[in-house]
Amino acid sequence: MSYCFRIRFNLARARIDSTATELAIANGDENVALFAPHGTDSIRGAERLALVGRPYASEALALAAGARWRDVLAKALASLNIGADFGERAVTGVVTEAGLAALTEERGGRFVNDVHGLMAFECDPWPTFVSVSADAVAGRQEARVLDAIAKAAHIEAAVSDRERLAYDLYSASFFEASADARFMMLMMAVETLIELRARPSEVIAHVDQLLAATRAADIPKNEKESVEGASRWLRNQSIGQGGRELARQLGERRYMGTTRSGSFKVLRPAQCLGTRRPPAPTTG
Q1: DSSP letter assigned to residue 180
Q2: d(Cα 204, Cα 214) in Å, to the nearest integer?
Q3: Rg of the Cα trace of the chain?
Q4: pLDDT of 229-278, one tens digit each?
Q5: How many CA atoms lie within 13 A of 276 on its CB side?
Q6: Is the pTM value of this prediction over 0.90?
């Protein structure tokens, strides 16, 4: 029994210009190739690709080889200014074992989940990779929307440039497909709202002493200016202190602490995505 690894990844704003359906990466003790999605004519224009390697004596060896090749692929793509999502923190859906069994009974053959990222599996018989994808859209009741608008209009509170920018960043996070990018955008929105207050007078006095010592120090001018610039920030709170003070303004409210009503609509049906079987390994 032999095992294969498969790394399914998505390209971001770049494509590999190749008319081939598969590109051989390594032939020898390992047979590694890059594959276009099943049902497409070529790698050219494909956003979703798969790197497949074989054969390995165990699942653990296949996973270890896959992790090594994932790093190789990441380095190569980085050198070409190509971004890729290897599914490290992606939201995924899976078909249950019962669902896979039902597909086998209905269509014949072997089916496994189309993992976004690295997976290992028995090479023979070659499986069909099944993915479930859905876009969830949260509904907001008409009455709640109208009530929120009425309350906002009644308050008539001026929105500062800082708050406007924070909302723009918060809103932009919803348009990001990557969980990492969304997190970074939300952190930027929070930091935009943080106002750093001056530290206590005795702390400022201590910082001034440090600044005076720096000015008198016998160190290169560029280093002195750099240390002085960094030290001046010590007059005010740190980002962490300012963030905790901002969070305290929320009172007892907690994220996801209350049940919210809403409806969800599945926009895309389940899909079956097969990866072409790689050629038998060669020696040499």
Answers
A1: H
A2: 15
A3: 27
A4: 999 989 999 888 998 888 888 777 766 555 433 333 333 333 334 444 55
A5: 21
A6: no
